[in-house]
Amino acid sequence: MYRFLLSRQWVILTLIALVLVPTMIELGFWQFHRHERRVAQNALIADSIAAKPLPVEELTSPGHTVPRSDYWRPVTATGTFDTAHEVVVRRRTSADERVGVHILSPLVLRDGRIVLVNRGWIPAAADQHSYPPVPPAPKGEVTISGRLKADETTGASGIKDLKGLPDRQVMLINSTQQAALIGREVLGGYLEQTGPEPAGDTPELIPEPDHASIGAHMAYAVQWWLFAAGVPVGWVILVRREKHDRQTAASSGTKGNDTPGTPETDPEAIQATPSL
């Protein structure tokens, strides 16, 4: 009755179904784990932003790797900007997705150590080789507030650290790189400035990270699992349909063979016909 399942066509179809089911289940769990990570990150951002501001020196030091638990923590720093070693970070987008640069300014603390401050976004220069017109940093001693961020790396950010860039232009915000260029101790990580507001509304301060949206990962996970459940159901439906079609075809063939012959072809009718 089901010998047709051993045919080449049905063996291939069955193997495809057996591969699709675990693949779709795994894709569903992949999206589910992405949903979990997004929820956990949103909670981390919300908790960090709501934390009490601390002096940056209490959370990091030269060579220190900022742990994930300290990402986006409010910090303060008091010192004087070293504009001679200011650089711009290429290929950064603004809040409305315009491509430009970030201004990375060293802030010399009272103890002589340096913390890097991302002062915000400005448009890039007209060409890739020129240094853009950078709004001047405040002069004299200032107190900056901001969010603590970890050093950027190619592995974590996906940004390729290009070599041979024009002077005072970089691809990544990295305290180790800047310490080598400046020749002084630089605290690990950097400060993403949130205050005070710059004069003239430029540079544009980096907006608070989104921690309200969770994306559609959970919906995608459910979709993949429904697809996985639908594959065996579809396979059973196709098998039942194939069986029904074969039974119908066999029944039609049998009825055709059992149809009584016409007088012209029925032997008994021919014998009964009187000869002329």
TrEMBL record:
Region (Disordered) location: 244-276
Major location category of this protein: membrane
Keywords of this entry: Cell membrane, Membrane, Transmembrane, Transmembrane helix
UniProt membrane topology term: Multi-pass membrane protein
Subcellular location: Cell membrane; Membrane
Family as reported in the entry's similarity comment: Belongs to the SURF1 family.
Designated name of the protein: SURF1-like protein
